[in-house]
């Protein structure tokens, strides 16, 4: 298998039906103000904007970007923009030279290399894991 290009992608094509499923699922929640499949910079993905009311005032913007590939590789990037800094992390499954296929780029800066990890095989289970971790992060923000 060929390593991905510098965009953190996969050698496989994007799985649009999975992106559409995730889009429908996320649009049905109060926490999401927008979930749109985009082709930004030639990279097809799901762009999710979380509702500002879901976050305390210090968070200016919170987004989730999902790219899911037909071979079940993925990259899921969570990002919060605060007035004076950005807080982000990323869950990945793809071949690369810096980690095992499944890995996590931890907050607050999502550095590379990340931490080797293991993710569920089903996209629904991966989404649940990611959303649970985001919920934990939001709880911390409200407690601060």
TrEMBL record:
Chain spans, region Disordered: 94-120
Q: Which InterPro entries match?
A: TumE-like
**Where is there biased composition of kind Basic and acidic residues?**
94-105
Supply the name of the protein: Uncharacterized protein
Pfam families in the record: TumE (PF20126)
């Amino acid at each position: 298998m060929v390593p991905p290009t510098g965009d953190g992608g996969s050698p496989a094509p994007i799985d649009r039906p999975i992106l559409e499923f995730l889009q429908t699922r996320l649009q049905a929640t109060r926490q999401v103000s927008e979930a749109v499949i985009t082709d930004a910079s030639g990279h097809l993905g799901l762009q999710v904007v979380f509702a500002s009311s879901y976050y305390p005032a210090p968070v200016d913007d919170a987004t989730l970007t999902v790219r899911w590939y037909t071979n079940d590789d993925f990259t899921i990037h969570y990002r919060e923009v605060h007035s004076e800094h950005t807080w982000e992390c990323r869950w990945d499954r793809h071949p690369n030279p810096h980690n095992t296929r499944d890995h996590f780029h931890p907050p607050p800066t999502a550095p590379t290399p990340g931490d080797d990890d293991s993710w569920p095989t089903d996209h629904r289970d991966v989404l649940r894991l990611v959303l649970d971790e985001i919920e934990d992060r939001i709880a911390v923000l409200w407690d601060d």
